[in-house]
Amino acid sequence: MIFFFILIFGVFFLFFNVRMVAPGIKGSVIAGISVILLPVCFLFRTSYFASLGMSFFAVWLAEALFFYILWWIVRGIRRAIVKKPLDRHIEISVSRLLLFVSVLLTVIFRIAGTGANDNFHVREFKIAVPTEKEFTAVFFSDLHIDPLFKREKMERIVHVSDSLHPDLVLFGGDFSDVVDSTLSAWEYDFLVQKLAATAKTAAIAIDGNHEGFLEREGSDFKKWMQNNGFVVLEDSTVCTPFACITGRIDHSVAKMRDVERKPLFEMRPVAGDAKLPWLLLDHQPRGIEEDHPGRRPDFAMSGHTHNGQFFPGTVFIDWFWRLAYGIGELDQVKWLVSSGVDSWGPPVRIGSDTEVWFLRFVPDRL
After folding, report:
1. What is the pLDDT of residue 42?
2. Nearest CA to 65 among 6, 123, 22, 119?
3. How many helices (H) and strands (E) does the chain have?
4. Whole-prediction pTM value?
């Protein structure tokens, strides 16, 4: 919801500023074309060319907003000091310069950031947990399959997971930006089945906020993933011989369904399973309930933030999240926030990486 408010604000703000590039109706036409193309492309995003357009204008929106807001701040400071408005011709010249710079930067980002998005890193991390024997997991999130997503990337993810021989394959939400019937039409069923089969014990997934968006369009992420070999957890816990894994329903999905998320305390391992390590999957890294009593998860995993994805998001992302990326701690729980294996909208990474995590869970000897 916050994203859409920002988008609406951005559209109106840019229209007001971009129309300054030319006087009269000509400036309004240029501004109108500039700002209306992103929402139009978004409506037809299942089309390749609409997705291509959306990927360009999404980057431009971010860059143009940054520069025009910066210009407003500079102009406001100048007005406070000089006490008189800026000359109209200077305003037009600056507006044209900012439009040119934002478009040029968008082109550069769109070209330079594609390789960083396509070539994901495999990161390895060792975590001490209360277990008697070592076990491993491949964790990744934020595939965001859409018309611009390259099938070869999914094939590489399957290959990497197969080469690592993990006990668990864990997916952290936001699988696609198209409905499940489109995924089947694009023949992703077979690849997901192959990916699930790379897990020696279980392949487990949770939903993300984009699954909530698609559910409004009739998509059934849970059923589709289950039909292709994954266990999908929605405020539920499953125990394997190695660990108990709790998967949370995403905050946006819960809001869309008008349901409350179940308290984490009610999903804790009990009885004989209480001796197993407790892992948590929650798409958005908001932490756990403040009033959570008793045992806390031994390790938690999230995605969603994309670590800002590209400038200026990479600069401001830490303003919005207590832990925007990497290994840290939230509410006394050791937490991993992945930047995702792909990107939403524009397949662009500048200042952030795409990644898959290989996690080694080793006995805690303390």
Report:
1. 75
2. 6
3. 11, 12
4. 0.92
